[in-house]
């Protein structure tokens, strides 16, 4: 545009009837040439500025439109328990920020990613404190193809319903069910290698070779499965564990899964006791039709050890059934019956029953308030209620 204006001015000037002297014409020509150079330089700089603006805009658009390769998430639970033990005439009235968990993940490529989970239990940890700081997951996952995915590192064992999915907004009840606490020792993680195989849509297989349990062989917790979790903290790996799971989800609303684990010695070669070969078998069903869901799970340990048998700990088993009804996005009710026995090898009746009935209120799909009534029977005699708040993001 500036060049057009200058050209018009020149045409008008030379078309003018005004007659200039020769020396004035030369001076005017020099001025015009200098102005033309200035104009050319200005246009060059303008072109460079426009290109830089375009490149900057492209970079901004790319960053705004792209997804970050690193993700952060987490969950937490605050519990209030008011349970009366009718055998000892004692009351448990406790408020506890049970879990505070942070997730960190990073996607290196579309096929290779990292995932981790750090947990603070019971609000504070240290000498003489109730809590612990734990690394619950830290593994590399890689997709070899559409059917085969591998893991290496520290990860959750593929067993049960809660062990891999236990964020508070995903289950009913303030506390996790006792069968998946004492028989399947959720949350249960080990270090090692794992493979997930998708045989066909809705049918998958999981296999894992990991560190194993290391149960105490004396004291009140002798051969207790939950007490054998090493949490991959300088874990004794003399005897590894081998896990396999099959899961079927081809029918909408239905999940059926079964897991088996074998370990040659859950005492990790402890001196003075028999080798304790152990096998865990577990299965569960989840079926949802419209707003109604029913869950059922069974788990059984068989420990081949004379020392465990003498304590009645050679067999440990449990099951639960849980119907629930979700009225809408905000309200749901449930009832759950549990029965479990960590000394099922005894001739005595040592099984414990526990019934919970309650409600979940989702303030948001990832924020939930919970309340339930609890009654314990069998070898225990206790009742009371629980209140809870949970979140995830």
Q: Mean of the pLDDT scores?
A: 91
Number of discrete domains: 2
- Strand arrangement, largest sheet? 1-2-3-4-5-6-7-8-9-10-11-12-13-14-15-16
Task: Please compute the radius of gyration using only Cα atoms.
Answer: 35 Å
Beta strand %: over 45%
The global form is: elongated
CATH topology of the largest domain: Porin
Mind describing the biggest β-sheet?
A: 16 strands, antiparallel, barrel
Low-confidence stretches: 1-20
Would you list the SSEs in sequence order as H and E? HHEEEEEHEEEEEEHEEEEE
| CATH domain class name of the largest domain | Mainly Beta
CATH architecture of the largest domain: Beta Barrel
Helix proportion of residues, in percent?
Answer: 10-25%
The number of strands is: 16
- Measure the end-to-end span: 56 Å
Number of helical segments? 4
Name the structural class. Answer: alpha+beta
CATH superfamily of the largest domain: Porin
